């Protein structure tokens, strides 16, 4: 392998437009690869600005990483969302200019798979990193329109008839994506659960490896911050990172708290939206305890959020591929109450008997909330759990690169 | 319609109605139904109506860029300097409306830089999407013949954002009020044209001063430019690119059998050159009318009514044509004449007419003004007329010894191929300019 290979990273968003968990992973691994002098990284991502010409390209740069922003028009056809030759053309030019040693494909919804064909023609090795179910599900998360987890295992496109709007189009998409994924040299998954499900569903069988995501580790003063907060207010504080949607488990959480016989606690709801709209209009005043909506946090102030809570509520009602917030909490010794939600349980602190089944009523959640309240902050304070850091994730990516770059 | 009555959708509609009310449920239904009916899909980039995403042509380029620049700045991604060792790639944005200028200052640069393993792309300044696209991929930005306008400042600002060094190239003294005020050809043109040039001159000077370096086409123009800018000024001469040599050879091959006439050709690529011809009008008229087998051939823009009636009878005038047609007509002549008034403007002139003539195997007789004499090996490839009487003497010498005229033309062609073709030598391109692109 070249001493310092040049990676062309593709993800729908990238700094300065950081949005979504997969983007955080893509960005942080890229930065570690660059900082550790393991690789050079250039990025392709999207913007959608009406005042700029469709498919024009602007180069941005954050922390020394060039990001080529392709401007996509909004009025694209369904097919262009997963297979867009216009983007393929732009990326082909960029590959010719940049001569990358590897194309690393993260989340490419709205970018489409033509970039894989382009890379293959240019003889650039390809690593696909799966972060969700976009490759096997038109709806990306295997969540049906009524916000119920699809639960197919494996996914068989014929069973999607009642879910998708246009079955013929969805079937063509399914086949196109499977064909394109087969062009990859390696497909990484953040969990065994995701790899097993995707490969069983026909996505590049045999090419998959598990490449566990990293997280932002706590800073050295985290414990002191946490202790200071607890000293100032010993009440238990629960945290929930997500919007008020059924699929993220909000309805279960609300039900569990609604009739709680205690109110000596706080709850922090993180608004992950860019415009602070997720929790607008939600009436929380009738729920017991002190409820507060806090704005989405940047990794630089992540410790402040986690120092302010004692228990993370992770009530996802679908089988997620990883569960970034669970690892962030565990790395800081924050207790987690969670559902049995796919790859989210593949960590060292999992307690199988305490996992709450998807679709279960609020009873078990209420029981574990009361248990946490009964024991107080001194008892819920767990020791930090060993989780993978972004640096460790970057180093393990080097091993993957060594297998595909000649 | 059946697509919208699926059980899961109905459940969702009821759920949203309960959570957010009927209005929101209907609003969402309308949005998703609209997407489906348009054959589209939900986007990560929001729910705006499609019309809001159509390119808004009412935005001026500077407004278009200001929006995205602000966003990049807020995300700390505004400055995007080149931080990797990368092969040089020049993006040229220029005024490509003048075909001769485009050929000699833009298209042939591609050949020159490719010979140095430097990628080179160009765009007309009004083709904003292409121009901006080229900048994103470039390591160096070259402006050709651009005046200071809001649009050219946008390009320059974008180039600075991207950390590109900027070169400004010009091949006429458009920045000089002194040159245009004393340019004698202007006397034959609409006074408004002169007024325009005088008005815009400071805008070209501003462009020179905002660039990192300046390149010009002749040493005379370099001397003049240095009076207007403290920036380093380098010379990159026009030369005979492979297309010129090939088209010239084709014109020679298509010359046809000799018809016994001796043709003196005067080519004029733009308006106002009657003033130059005035310098030799009397001598040329005397030479041509002295023998019925002699002709004056005028190619391009020229007011022939200013010629003596006797000369008109032996004059052939071909209007401004394509470059290939121009070379074809040029090749039918026996010698080219290139008189230039000795003024500040003409002292900046390059020898492109000598290149054209040599390309079709013609000797040239030139004024000792501008860069024309540089291109002539006096007595071998043509004559430098230092005194008024030299024109007639040279013409008579060649007309009376046509074999010599042919040999002189062939030598001019050989010299063009060996000395004035594409080559990164100091007489074509300043070494400092090569170093600037390839440090």
TrEMBL record, chain A:
Residues covered by the Glycosyl transferase family domain: 232-353
Key word GTP-binding present: no
InterPro entries in the cross-refs: Glyco_trans_1, Glyco_trans_4-like_N, Glycosyltransferase_grp1
Species this protein is from: Roseovarius mucosus
Keywords annotated in UniProt: Transferase
Keyword set includes Disulfide bond: no
Molecular function in Gene Ontology: glycosyltransferase activity
Ranges for domain Glycosyltransferase subfamily 4-like N-terminal: 19-216
Protein name: Glycosyltransferase Family 4
Record Pfam families: Glyco_transf_4, Glycos_transf_1
Top-level taxon in the UniProt lineage: Bacteria
Automatic annotation (TrEMBL), chain B:
Enzyme class: transferase
EC number from the UniProt entry: 2.4.1.250
SUPFAM superfamilies attached to this UniProt entry: UDP-Glycosyltransferase/glycogen phosphorylase (SSF53756)
Taxonomic superkingdom: Bacteria
Keywords: Glycosyltransferase, Transferase
A Pfam family this chain is assigned to: Glyco_trans_1_4
Molecular function terms, GO-annotated: D-inositol-3-phosphate glycosyltransferase activity
UniProt name for this protein: D-inositol-3-phosphate glycosyltransferase
Lineage, uppermost ranks: Bacteria, Pseudomonadati, Pseudomonadota, Alphaproteobacteria, Rhodobacterales
